[in-house]
Amino acid sequence: MGDQMKSLLGERKSIVEKKTNSSKEERNRQNDEVKRWVETRKGIQDTIRQLMDEMDRQQEIRESENNKVKELKIIREQKTKDMQEIRKEFFSHVDSKRIEQRKKTRGISSIKEEMRKLEFKHMTKKISDEKFEEQRKKLKEELKDADGSKIVDLGGPSELREKLKIAESEQEAAHSAVDAAAVVAQSAHDLMHEIRTEVSRLKDEHSDAHRKVEKFRRIADKHHKKFLVGMRCIQSIDGILNSTTDDLGSVEDAASVEARDLMDLLMSGETLGLEDLMAFQRNN
Questions:
Q1: pLDDT for residue 259
Q2: How many other C-beta atoms are found inside a 10 Å radius of the C-beta of residue 231?
Q3: Whole-structure pTM value
Q4: Does residue 180 contact residue 72 with C-beta atoms inside 8 Å?
Q5: Which terminal residue of the chain has fewer beta carbons within 10 Å of its beta carbon, N or C?
Q6: Per the structure, how many domains does the chain have?
Q7: Cα 72 to Cα 83: distance, rounded to the nearest angstrom
């Protein structure tokens, strides 16, 4: 009877070994998946950390440039006021010179109109030839003076013109500086928005990777438990197979009813499930 049981146990041991090796291989495969997703998760974490560092850097740039914009606007405002004052002085001078010039010299159109009227009078014999020539000569000289006259400092004194030119240049430079700082600040703000969007997407990927890690870890743990139970069962079977006939009898006498039932299943050729193997482990 002992030899028959050993023979059957040997056959059952082969089945258990096959299942145990299968559990080991599946556990290793699942652990490989765990490692792969752990690395993926770590890579995502590193990327998120780098992006957050970059977002902090861009925030510093934005705040710095916004402060610069405020300061430059104050400078621009002052430069604009200075330019406006100089421009007002400049055009005031020009206007006064024009008024003064107009008082001194009649306009060309006015002189030509008077010449036309003079010619009409001469044609209608309302004026003598001598008087016509006299007045005509006078009007021609006046026309020549009006046509060729140059208003001194009509464009303003050279010193004032240069002062206005410098003021306009400084105001334009101040305006450009404000625009440049504003562009940098806006670029940093836009980049922060892009980074924030990317971080949000990566966080979703990180959560998915974490779920995969937990999923494959649970599966690996399940197969690892099966592997441990199988190894313990193999050890127990080996212990029985290596025992003497008397030892077998004492083992059977000492075994619980549940263990004997499991032994009966092994003897009958039934396939043991995980719960059966764990029960076998507890009783051997």
A1: 46
A2: 16
A3: 0.58
A4: no
A5: N
A6: 1
A7: 16
